[in-house]
Amino acid sequence: MTNEGKEKPRFYTCDCFTTDNIFLEEYKLHVRFVSEQQFRLDYHALLKKLGCVTDEQFEGVLNKISQEVDRRKHLGVTSAQRAAAIKDIYRPLHPHVYHLQESYLTSEFKQIVEYCQSDSATEEGLLGLLEEQVAPRVYRFPLFDKSFCEDLMEELKHFEQSAAPKGRPNTMNQYGILLNELGFDEHFITPLREQYLLPLTSLLYPDCGGCCLDSHKAFVVKYDMNEDLDLSYHYDNAEVTLNVSLGKEFTEGNLYFGDMRQVPVSETECSEVEHRVTEGLLHRGQHMHGALPISSGQRWNLIIWMRASQERNKQCPMCNRTPTLVEAEGFADGFTKHSDPPQNISCALT
Description:
InterPro entries: Oxoglu/Fe-dep_dioxygenase_dom, Pro_4_hyd_alph
Largest sheet: 8 strands, antiparallel
Pfam families: OGFOD2-like
CATH architecture of the domain at 93-336: Sandwich
Structural class: alpha+beta
Oligomer: single chain
Strand content: 15-25%
Distance between the termini: 22 Å
CATH topology of the domain at 93-336: Jelly Rolls
Cofactor: L-ascorbate
Number of helices: 9
Number of strands: 16
Shape: globular
GO molecular function: dioxygenase activity; iron ion binding; L-ascorbic acid binding; oxidoreductase activity, acting on paired donors, with incorporation or reduction of molecular oxygen
Protein name: Fe2OG dioxygenase domain-containing protein
């Protein structure tokens, strides 16, 4: 299930990355910005209804968007610079957490994976092993050992308090850590995706690329009483998402799931889901969801956006158009050129 000896494809981003899905926190609104003229035509009236009524407020919005567009344009370079600086100056507190070991995983999860790898595995049989379906096609299961979560939390806190440079995960999460910059990709996230998660997603999500996941973006988000309290309703830039509650002590802050993003909000009924420490939630990336505010304490979540190039090469999930590819670093946004050799994964989508 690994890709040793295989030529790795080059990954790309879509050109919509710099223009689409820019989140305006103050107005809880995702916008598209191609030009000021286009933006005024598309959003001026709507922003007025949401409280952006003065010229100064509107100019403030334009300024924030300009800063975000500039950040995205230079993200590849700045991220590589941060990763190099981290490698040079940061000394890990717990070096062992950067390498995935079976002892970090619960016996229940390893049993589930073993079943999925068997010749007789079926979706029905897998559903019988999973703890529960907490919302439509949202599955919860015990993933990590508690002592590993504690060590990982200590490592992340140690990094957070260090002088090393840090980048924010995305426009919606102001506080957190990009795990590829910290050095988790090669020996932790990639084997977790390829060896342990892919057998599950192949059975659970064959219709949306679950058997073809060949890249990812992994990060940790932090919710704190003095920082981000919650997360607005949204969908992910992913085919399948894993969300793991790492700790610490907190109250409330449950997740909630609506419908797929194509369904109007007025026709959606949300399900509230308790997110328990050490447990993972699997869901489709295009499944609308959010996080309610915590009322005390601090919560850290590990998020892995898993991508299937065979799916997104046909249509970008963020702009709904055939992707126009732009060169980028690492896994980028998971697009490949059709001529790139596929990794050691076969996928027959239904």
